[in-house]
């Protein structure tokens, strides 16, 4: 027991679940930040209305058209796409029409589902496919699979699959798009260490390639394209539907234990020893959260630095409780919501923001988390440091995430032990200080870095050739370059963390 914490009452599980997503660092800030949205490069377009294809089931919109702004509005408000034309697709044939339209004009073609992951700016020369109207989900309980359309969100899939006693390898929040997440690997904080990356369990991919053809890609139909798509994101085409495995999980022993920032050192040092001992059924992370002083945040947490331990265990609750006991004992928590929970409540574990937020993000991968790593992290982002980072997260990898999948894919760096993820909330005026703070953390942790990055956590500052290469093993990157040359030699799909044709 930590004496310095004695006397501070722990809030109940009900209090934290009742507070909902506001426990997450950025949600409350998002509530006051919408005015900081960054406008794109204006309302210009080189595309004439008369040039637009007919017969599209959804809508084809030029800047200024009603519906255009809604079709391009992103979750991360720091980069609002301003394409010359947006195809608000309602069917795979609409995606084909958009890609053919772009290819015919040598224009870049991009794809937007939720706008959680900005990369390069999308301007008037671009054709953008918005997949938001394509939210279909079909569950096959016998085969334990889901088939989803391009715009489906994790919330859609979790709701549908739980009706059959099954869960997917979803991410920390239900508002992220299934396809973008899965093509970048798909690191599930609930059952990822038990089953591996979401990309490891994809069975088939419907893809519109740069020639405008719609094809189903499987391990049998095109081994190399199936390899590259799972990890290579939108570099090889636009996915219109995805089929993947589900798992027999309906409850978790999970939640968050939130400690006062003053106890961050105790927690992190105990955590680094603890992770070496836990089974694959235990997924976890620790985040240093700087919470705003706002009414949406539980009173005890307002304006504070806290250390949030996130737990998700898929075994028996009593075994989970025994596993978590040593971490519960490091100090008196301010909030302890870890208990048996329905799988559907998974977003409460991380408490991520659910409303659009202007944010800058940085990432990295760590080989290990030793005593000196923790001390270094605390020295730059711990108590007493006034840094503009709403969240600094260390997420445990290993387990099935470290094992090769049945059908090899481009997801790399399986030997990394932890992801490092940072987010600062604010518009362009805040960018310099957020970027500097995040760069300082990256610099201080460099001795323990693998030098790599996890594709899904890369953002606007990670679009250089060098950054994109660092997301893949060198041999994997060479395969992806060669694949790109075969399927997209003109680099039509370049509005992303781009792999160039070699
Ligand atoms: C709050 C938050 C929590 C997150 N939690 C996790 C997590 O737990 N684990 C994890 O792994 N990641 C997580 N992420 C990262 C997330 O997986 C990526 O941001 C992902 O790319 C989001 O996909 P999207 O479609 O929602 O976003 P978008 O910004 O719409 O798309 C991002 C990119 O995905 C690709 N893409 C999207 N749709 C298609 C398509 N139909 N065809 C081809 N490519 C496509 C494109 O390259 C596109 O540029 C999180 C992100 C946020 C902001």
UniProtKB/TrEMBL annotation:
Signal peptide span: 1-30
A Pfam family recorded for this sequence: BBE
Keyword Metal-binding annotated: no
Cofactor: FAD
InterPro entries to which the protein is assigned, alphabetical: BBE (IPR012951), FAD-bd_PCMH (IPR016166), FAD-bd_PCMH-like_sf (IPR036318), FAD-bd_PCMH_sub1 (IPR016167), FAD-bd_PCMH_sub2 (IPR016169), FAD-linked_Oxidoreductase (IPR050416), Oxid_FAD_bind_N (IPR006094), TAT_signal (IPR006311)
Domain of life: Bacteria
UniProt keyword annotations, A-Z: FAD, Flavoprotein, Oxidoreductase, Signal
PROSITE patterns, per database record: FAD_PCMH (PS51387), TAT (PS51318)
Domain FAD-binding PCMH-type: 79-249
Coiled coil feature spans: none
Family the entry assigns: Belongs to the oxygen-dependent FAD-linked oxidoreductase family.
One example GO MF annotation: FAD binding
Protein name: UDP-N-acetylenolpyruvoylglucosamine reductase
